[in-house]
Amino acid sequence: MATTTIERPTDKVATPAPTHPALSLMRTISDDIEAFFNDAGFGIGRWPIGARLFERSHAVWMPSVEVQEHEGRLVVRADLPGMTRDQITVALAENLLTIEGERRASSREKTDDYFRTERSYGHFSRAIALPKTVKSDTAVATFTNGVLEVTFEIVAPTVPAARQLPITEPTR
User: Fold this and answer.
1) Of 41, 42, 68, whose CA–CA distance to 128 is shortest?
2) Alpha-carbon span 121 to 165, nearest angstrom
3) pLDDT tens figures, 32-42
């Protein structure tokens, strides 16, 4: 089985890529998919990842969100590691919770060889549709150890009482 060596900026010699027709086709398809996502602004390309990240003003970053019902409350949690409460905005309009912010990269100088980062930075905005059973005026937001938590009281849905309908003759 042939192997591929990925050339780093300081490497002088690299092993050529495999030439088997099936591998060549797979590489072409992979390149096309990568180009599609890069053109749409969602890709960061292949190695060296650091060089690709610095070609853009910022990489796409979206925090993970969890929504669950717990003890009669709706709880929305968003993982926002490395952020402070001052960098986050939480807004509520009708039944839509919006969490926005920006995680900024710390400035660093490039070394002689290269710089690599797998952390993403940039502006984000998450909009979460809330069920109609949520009392929006009871919303409370807390931020602890990089986790934003927004809780709401849930109103029990009103179910109309069952009633029996009389059966009548149709009118003509």
Assistant:
1) 68
2) 62
3) 777 776 666 55
